[in-house]
């Protein structure tokens, strides 16, 4: 169905996608590109085809600054909670590019979208939330293909962000995404580069039959 070039491009995009904090170029994403990226998000699979997400785009500089101030307070509270050695490692790590990215996209999750009888959410209630997260991943990969950076910010109080974008319970804001053109994408994730935490090999994450079972044909 797809040629090798398209297949390889997809794998490249998946591999090169980064969480971006410091590399935003300071230009605003073009509207047509923004719509393409949002359309990719909206193409995500969802339990019972409920599409339980909404996207709130924030571009006003004052509002971006206001949210960034709130996030700075949450970052400080996390830093204060750390033991001395972890605090030293955390200190130089930038955790957001809210103002520099020029665009914030708040993704919300509405657990009531689709009514009471949702096909596939009968026993696993979180499958609704999982669906909204898949929209975020689609957005992230499409943005990477468009040469944009995305940074997921979760250093916020949920009530603050709900008020900020006018979301009423039971709908929840589940992510603030900084989205904008970048100067480059880092090859190595920031948390590895700054010595906070490294990734684990695939072999450690893949299991056959059961989590602790040895592989039969190994
Ligand atoms: C649910 C979620 C929340 C995250 N929250 C933050 C955040 O608040 N600040 C930040 O700098 N990075 C955040 N990240 C980015 C991760 O730190 C990053 O994905 C991870 O270190 C791997 O790096 P990579 O995405 O560049 O591969 C978040 C990622 C996810 C999936």
Automatic annotation (TrEMBL):
<protein>
    <submittedName>
        <fullName>5,6-dimethylbenzimidazole synthase</fullName>
        <ecNumber>1.13.11.79</ecNumber>
    </submittedName>
</protein>
<keyword id="KW-0560">Oxidoreductase</keyword>
């Amino acid at each position: 169905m797809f040629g090798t070039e398209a297949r390889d491009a997809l794998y490249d995009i998946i591999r090169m996608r980064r969480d971006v904090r410091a590399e935003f170029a300071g230009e605003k994403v073009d509207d047509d590109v923004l719509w393409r990226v949002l359309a990719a998000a909206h193409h995500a699979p969802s339990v019972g085809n409920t599409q339980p997400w909404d996207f709130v785009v924030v571009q006003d500089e004052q509002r971006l600054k206001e949210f960034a101030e709130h996030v700075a307070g949450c970052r400080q509270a996390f830093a204060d909670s750390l033991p001395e050695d972890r605090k030293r490692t955390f200190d130089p790590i930038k955790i957001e590019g809210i103002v520099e990215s020029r665009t914030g996209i708040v993704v919300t999750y509405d657990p009531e979208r689709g009514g009471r009888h949702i096909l596939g959410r009968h026993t696993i209630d979180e499958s609704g939330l999982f669906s909204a997260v898949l929209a975020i991943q689609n957005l992230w990969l499409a943005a990477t293909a468009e040469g944009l950076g995305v940074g997921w910010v979760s250093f916020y109080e949920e009530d603050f962000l709900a008020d900020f974008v006018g979301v009423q319970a039971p709908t929840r804001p589940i992510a603030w995404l900084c989205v904008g053109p970048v100067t480059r994408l880092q090859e190595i994730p920031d948390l590895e580069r700054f010595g906070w935490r490294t990734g684990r090999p695939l072999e450690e994450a893949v299991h056959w039959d059961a989590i602790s079972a040895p592989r039969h044909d190994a």
